[in-house]
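Q: How would the structure tokens look for this protein?
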Amino acid sequence: MQQEKIVIIGAGHVGSHCAYALAHCGVCREIVLTDILPDKAAAQALDVADSVSYLPQDVTVRAGELSECADAARLDMLGRSIEMLKELTAQLRPLALTCPVVSITNPADIVADYLRKQLSLPRTQCFSTGTLLDTARLIRAIAQAAGTDRRSVSAFSMGEHGDSSMVPFSAVTVGGVPFDKLGLDKTAILTQTRQAGMDIIEGKGSTEFGIGLSLARLAAAILGDQHRVLPVSVLLEGEYGQQGVHCGVPCRIGRRGIEEIVVLDLTEEEQQQLDTSCQVIRKHITLADSL
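A: Here is the predicted structure in token form.
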């Protein structure tokens, strides 16, 4: 169990499920929920706090204020629009944050770029979950198609956290066997990966559990200084031939945030797919900057 505090800004469906996942995974000692509606944050914190009474580890879950971000070990941004983020970043900027700032807000890549610029943070410190959840969905789809345990699958989803995401199948293995030797349908797996989020939203209104556990895994990598490679949306500065765009790529994650961007050896077709996805992101970044 780590000793650090994690502050979650936004106590809605995603924020509360992230708090629940963090508490039950034993990622940190203290979780603070904040929200524009204080009573909602207090109620969500109390509900999550009730759920940890029978856990083997002691976790404090409570409501708090934005000012507590100043000494947080990690900060999760969960606003819903650029207008809300303008107000939020104005309050956070004077705190001179030194902790990693991780955004879960959609559109993930665009919000991460906006936050990094508004908070004047280095790319290693401010990023989003990006294609981390997409990768979880990809691993599920591959495991089901191959009839194997998910832990035997090594794969990354890259690019936009959205419809233009791509999969470098040349880097995918199942039990050490390259994807191309498995006889599986690439198109079907990519479609399942991209469509999963929409299927969930159409069925119940929002995604919650998958992103909650994805966040917990990322937070554990940061607080535990695990040096684990996970796909997150980071500003590219020449990697993969891209400049000035946030994009989901595998990164080595440690206590300070992003330690290294891992550059895979993509095929020509895969590089073109990533370029196309980055162009989609770039258009939306330009729009966000104009708001």
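Residues 36 and 73 are 21 Å apart (CA to CA).

DSSP finds eight helices and twelve strands in the chain.

Upvote if useful.
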